[in-house]
Write a structure and sequence with these properties.
Blueprint: E1 5-10, H1 15-25, E2 31-38, H2 42-52, E3 56-59, H3 65-74, E4 80-83, H4 85-93, E5 99-102, H5 110-118, E6 122-125, H6 128-145, E7 148-151, H7 154-162, H8 167-170, E8 177-184, H9 194-197, H10 202-205, H11 215-223, H12 225-237, E9 245-249, E10 255-261, E11 266-270, H13 276-284, H14 298-301, H15 315-326, H16 330-346, H17 354-365, H18 374-399
Parallel strand pairs: 1-2, 1-5, 2-3, 3-4, 5-6, 6-7, 8-9
Antiparallel strand pairs: 8-10, 10-11
Bound molecules: NADP nicotinamide-adenine-dinucleotide phosphate.
């Protein structure tokens, strides 16, 4: 066994953050929790710091710093406090941190995740949006720093497990890989007809049949934008040509993804739908540790179904494929417009089926470019947010 690893969890109060701390707590001899971050929930962050012995607590919304200090004091927790988005960059740079769980939701996670990669840390990547908007940048940074990026998203972790160990050095084609097949549960509206989709509520959209997740990714799963973002994430994580990636609907969420090889073999990774499995795999890789997840009992599951996605009812998936093929800043624009649209839906400002339209309109209006630097990517992100917000305000006025 390797020496104890110092872990920082970005987004500790979220669904992935808490599952990560659950796995870590099962292996105190292997992992030390060095630092935890949150954004809007200082009280919960303080409780997690006290429970897991973190030395540093970072709250990225600086307006919450005093509440965090007070909460830590009331728990007699000696963790130091830092605040603001830039404090996340210092958190990942701590000398005692060698592994960073990147579990902030959305583009807000890009800065600290990229910084951790620049510093050559092991990055456990849940924050798919960071890879979607800045994939080529991660490639350059990892080549220079030697950082390890281990995918946590269940589909990408499954692909990582089904690929040969040296695929990154040899490339997919030379490794005999024909296709990467991402599975999708289809979300809560898999069988909902197009007319009924118009009136679905945020509560219904967040009620995923198989997975217990944060609100943003739950809505993304309901529109299939989550699968679209994952297609782009796979393109960059595995350096896959866009036409190598397929999506198949698999409602049981037991097969987490598959790799199809030149000799006709298809290797699948299976397990119960519980994120502690990929989290434990990423934490311990190349070893295996207990995650707290029960073993899969296939006779109890009985049947595994697979069918193609319906791009007419779920146009977000097609938009993501288009953005991936366009390249440059298109994925950053897609992601930013989607973040604004999803929040507007959750806040009750736009209906569910306005999400794809808003993303498509923003993509069409955007000044596409070959963005290669962080500055260019963030400019495309900011422009898309401004356009999408204006579109939401326009729709809101119409709704009033
Ligand atoms: N949940 C899953 O099963 C799952 C599976 C695969 C991939 N992922 C990916 O993992 C990431 C996290 O998902 P999640 O479901 O865990 O989300 P979540 O439950 O909503 O948690 C998000 C975390 O990010 C923090 N955060 C929110 N806005 C922030 C900001 N502007 N700056 C800094 N931190 C911020 C939150 O802090 P507060 O709570 O204090 O606001 C919280 O700790 C997403 O990229 C998602 O796509 C999730």
């Amino acid at each position: 066994m390797t020496a104890s690893r110092g872990i920082a969890v970005l987004g500790a109060t979220g669904s992935i953050g808490r599952s990560t701390l659950d796995v870590i707590a099962r292996h105190p001899e292997r992992y030390r929790v060095e630092a935890l971050s949150a954004h809007s929930r200082p009280g919960e962050l303080a409780e997690l710091c006290a429970a897991h012995g973190a030395r540093l607590a970072v709250i990225s919304d600086s307006g919450q710093a005093q509440t965090l200090r007070d909460a830590l004091q009331s728990l007699n927790c000696p963790a130091e406090v830092a605040a603001g988005p830039e404090a996340l960059l210092d958190l990942v740079a701590m000398e005692t941190v060698d592994t960073v769980m990147a579990a902030i939701v959305g583009a807000a996670g890009l800065g600290p995740t990229l910084r951790a990669a620049e510093l050559g840390k092991r990055v456990l990547l849940a924050n798919k949006e960071a890879m979607v908007i800045a994939g080529p940048l991660f490639h350059r940074v990892v080549a220079q720093s030697g950082a390890e990026i281990i995918p946590v998203d269940s589909e990408h972790n499954a692909l990582f497990q089904a690929l040969p160990a040296d695929f990154a050095r040899r490339g997919l084609a030379a490794s005999g890989v024909r296709r990467l097949i991402l599975t999708a549960s289809g979300g809560p509206f898999l069988d909902t007809d197009a007319d009924a989709l118009a009136g679905v509520t945020p509560e219904q959209a967040c009620n995923h049949p198989n997975w217990d997740m944060g609100k943003k990714i739950s809505v993304d799963s309901a529109t299939l934008m989550n699968k679209g973002l994952e297609v782009i994430e796979a393109r960059w994580l595995f350096d896959a040509a866009p036409d190598m990636i397929d999506v198949v609907i698999h409602p049981q969420s037991i097969v987490h993804s598959m790799v199809s090889y030149a000799d006709g073999s298809v290797l699948a990774q299976m397990g119960l739908p519980d994120m502690r499995t990929p989290i434990a795999h990423a934490l311990a890789w190349p070893e295996r540790i207990d995650s707290g997840v029960a073993s899969l009992d296939l006779p109890t599951i009985g049947t595994l179904d697979f069918h193609p996605p319906d791009l007419n009812r779920f146009p977000c998936l097609a938009l993501a494929f288009d953005a991936m093929r366009a390249g440059g800043s298109a994925a950053a624009t897609l992601n930013a417009a989607n973040e604004i649209a999803v929040q507007a839906f959750l806040d009750g400002h736009i209906p569910f089926m306005a999400i794809p339209g808003l993303v498509e309109d923003t993509l069409e209006a955007a000044a596409w470019n070959h963005a290669t630097s962080l500055e260019e990517i963030m400019r495309a992100d900011a422009e898309a947010r401004t356009r999408a917000r204006a579109a939401v305000q326009g729709k809101d006025k119409v709704n009033v």
